[in-house]
Amino acid sequence: MKITVYADCRKCARLKETTEAVVEELGVDADVTEESDMTKLAEKGVMSPPGLEIDGEIVHNGTTPPADHIESILTDHAES
Question: Which residues fall in a compositionally biased region of kind Basic and acidic residues (predicted)?
Answer without folding.
Answer: 68-80
